[in-house]
Amino acid sequence: MNAEARQGFSPRKGREPVELFRSVNVDWLKLKWYFLGFSLIFSVAGVISMAMHYHQIGSPVPLGVDFRGGTEVQVQFQQAPDIGAIRQAMDAAGIKDATVQRYDEARLNEVLISLPEQKDESSLESGQKQVLDALQSHYANPTVPTGTKVSVVGPTVGNQLKRQALLATLYSLLGMLVYLWFRFQLIYGVAAVVAVFHDTLITVGAFALRDKEISLTVIAAILTLIGYSMNDTIVVFDRIRENLRLSRRESLADVVNRSINQTLSRTVLTSGLTFLTVLSLFIFGGQVLNGFSFALVIGILIGTYSSIAVAAPMLVAWQQSRAQSGKTVALPAAKRSRV
Amino acid sequence: MNKNLNKKIAVIIAFLAVCIYGIIGVPSGFSGKALTQSLTKNIHLGLDLRGGAHLILQVVVSEAVSAETDDAVARIQQDLKAANLTYAQVYKPDPVKQPEVVKIEGTSPASSGTVRSTLDDKFSTDYDLSGGSDNSWTLTMKPNIETALEQKTVDQAIETITDRVNALGVSEPVVSPYGLGKNEILVELPGISDLEQVKSIIQSTARLEIHPVVGGPYNDEQAALAANSGALPPDEVMLHGSGTLATGSDADAVYVLKRVPVVAGSEFRSADPGTDQNGRQAVHFTLTNDAGDKFYDYTSKNVGQSMAVVMEGRVKEVANIQSAIRDTGEIVGSFTPTEVQVLSKMLRTGALPASLNPIEDRTVGASLGADSIRQGVTAAVVGVLVVMAFMLVYYRGSGINADLALFLNLVILLGFMGYTGSVLTLPGIAGVILTIGMGVDSNVLIFERIREEVRAGKAPAAAIDQGFAHAWTTIFDTHVTTIVSAAILFLFGSGPVKGFAVTLTFGLAANLFTAVYVSRVIFDWHLGRLKPGEPISI
């Protein structure tokens, strides 16, 4: 840090600009085995948890009412509700298998009453009516429900949504693979998609580990984090492509390392800022957005990590394996002209 | 350069003004109340924010097919009789699973040719004819006719539901086909918190039918079967009911009726409440002209027999045919006053062509909606403030640039939403928060690049130029990929998720504009004011 280097910056305030990563020079590729280990631990933990859930409840992650079907009545009381008394009220009314739990912040006095999936759709409405009637007649506490939110989802819609969500995710990935193939080269697209798969696996695994439900809005969050992780990976790839164009003599590994170091300050900043906005959602956003913000909090961290730890090493490993097997190694930058 | 710059600034301000107009229109005043009023007029809140009901109803199209084939059965019988062809029976072998199939049995072998030509003549446009051996024939509705009928049924159902919902006085209701499965209808009713009453009005089939009575009243189904030697022939059906006139009491009884009604559904032109001379509840009905002829035909041939009035699968009344009736009549009996009112209202707005099965129900009470808005907005505001503060600290002077761009982003996003009438949902608010995060990303990309160029020794103007040039490809790639993801979400998602995709796409598009065009203009303006040799604050 000498005077010339600081030449371009405003001397008025007498302070240097705040810069977090001015001259970083980490050999990221050397750390790839640590990265692999870290990823493996979390992936495997997630997969095991999903397997256990599958064994217990028939699906890898707890599903929200959108997917599993059933009745969910969310009731707000004027005064603090008594869970035990509510359960007794359900039993007294003959409602079997009802789950009663506190919902959201304590001061809101909300309770969530869930009934399991109905086998046929003609009994959809009766569940909701039964719950409300039971509360009216058997809940001895002199409180009156002030607001209710009811979701009744039949098994048809639940199954359709499951299929639809899966399809949307897969098409999303395919679309991005094609776009990257077009803008860079196939291996870039594949590396990016693998990184995204890794992110999705760990995020869904986190839901399994923490026993959180996946609802339709969570799927929206997962799709967002896919886009975000791609985003991050593309920034690094873009820099790699630019550097490859400029210097033909460096090995790919060196170029990749340098590119990551150059984009590091941007990566940490953006991820940090986006992470902060999402964290604010997680803390202040309320119960309804809780699953959504949880997915994003994990997703943004892992998405940033994967660009450096998964996508970049994959790129280098691929090229090295091709070089070893004697195939021609075309520098990716040579093929595309700059837009 | 200066003139160019002024033009650009003018463009930006004009665009801003247009967006602000989209958000609040021309407000009647500048008080908080007037502004919130114009705001809510332009920005539509989704159901999860405003409170209301969301229903997905499946149209049981097989009923429409059934009704059509019932009609065909009656016509076949008439045509065969008119052509003097004998037959044993005309019926539907599997009315539940295959409502589109009609079977004719027991024709005489000699007239087989005439039977074929008569059936061909009358039914070949809509049905496929097969058979002829062992004197039985099968008519199957053609698949394309069946699909067209199903589509027509769904369309009619949508129209009828719209009429009924409008008659209820719901503001801004949505009734539309629902994309996921076939034959599903989405109904969204903002502001409705008591779903039960609304559902019963929407779903009421109010389909009146009159069937010939074969036997009854029996005490229960076993008795009915016993009296008919154990099983019913295929053209008869058992229904429960409480015909007070017949049994003299309100107890439930079982009747055996002919499956095919004499007149049904839309053949009733109207039904009005009234009382008969003894003061009992009665329904005065009128039939359409064609139905009137059919009814006259039936009643004149069956004086002294009984006919049953059936509504929604239950026998409401059994009446003795005392004389031929053409097209106006009166049914006395066990209708409650409310039933008659509902019935007449339904017949006036039009009957549903088939019954509706609810497959998804959601209601959000308005108070819960307001809570969600509050929480979402708090989160958004906190997020924005933290980001803005950070940009100021980290990028100093240029931080103001970034913050301005961020603010503009939000205004443009809301403006787009106001103009397109898009609906803001809770995930949509989350989409806005995410746009803030990603919008800042573009600024960071550009500023970091500019810092690099400055560090490499370039003059301010050149540094800014290079910074924007290099960052553009990256910004373009990243935004296009996320927009692709959002587009797929929009195509495959429904309701709230669609709202999220919309705000994300608009936000990213707005961001492309602010991060690249507006930021550049602000930098250029700042450059114009820099003294020579003075560095940029970044």
Topology:
The complex is a heterodimer of chains A (339) and B (538).
Chain A: H1 32-57, H2 65-68, E1 70-77, H3 83-92, E2 99-103, E3 110-115, H4 124-138, E4 145-153, H5 155-183, H6 186-210, H7 216-246, H8 252-284, H9 290-324, H10 332-335
Chain B: H1 2-24, H2 32-42, E1 44-45, H3 47-50, E2 52-59, H4 61-82, E3 89-91, E4 101-105, H5 112-123, E5 127-131, E6 136-141, H6 143-168, E7 174-177, E8 184-190, H7 195-203, E9 208-218, H8 221-227, E10 236-241, H9 244-247, E11 253-258, E12 263-264, E13 268-275, E14 281-287, H10 289-301, E15 306-311, E16 314-320, E17 328-332, H11 337-349, E18 356-364, H12 366-395, H13 397-420, E19 423-424, H14 426-455, H15 460-492, H16 496-529
Parallel strand pairs in B: 1-19
Antiparallel strand pairs in B: 2-8, 2-18, 3-4, 4-6, 5-6, 7-8, 9-11, 9-12, 9-15, 10-11, 13-14, 14-17, 15-16
Structural commentary:
The complex is a heterodimer of chains A (339) and B (538). Chain A has 2 domains: 28-59 and 158-325, Multidrug efflux transporter AcrB transmembrane domain (Multidrug efflux transporter AcrB transmembrane fold, Up-down Bundle), CATH 1.20.1640.10; 70-153, 2-Layer Sandwich (Alpha-Beta Plaits), CATH 3.30.70. The longest helix of chain A is centred in the C-terminal third of the chain and has 35 residues, at 290-324. The two termini of chain A are 35 Å apart. A 4-stranded antiparallel β-sheet of chain A has the order 2-3-1-4. Chain A is an alpha+beta fold and 339 residues long. Chain A is built from 10 helices and 4 strands, in the order ααβαββαβαααααα. In chain A, α6 (186-210) packs antiparallel against α7 (216-246), α7 (216-246) packs antiparallel against α8 (252-284) and α7 (216-246) runs parallel beside α9. Chain B is of the alpha+beta class and 538 residues long. Chain B folds into 3 domains: 2-49 and 366-529, Multidrug efflux transporter AcrB transmembrane fold; 52-203, no CATH class; 205-331, 2-Layer Sandwich (Gyrase A, domain 2). In chain B, the strands form 5 sheets. In chain B, strands 9, 10, 11, 12, 15 and 16 form a 6-stranded antiparallel β-sheet that branches. Chain B has a 4-stranded antiparallel β-sheet with strand order 7-8-2-18. In chain B, α1 (2-24) packs across α13 (397-420), α4 (61-82) crosses α6 (143-168) and α12 packs antiparallel against α13 (397-420). In chain B, 42% of the residues are buried. The model of chain B has no long low-confidence stretch (mean pLDDT 79). The interface between A and B is large, with 85 and 87 residues. β4 (145-153) of chain A pairs antiparallel with β18 (356-364) of chain B.
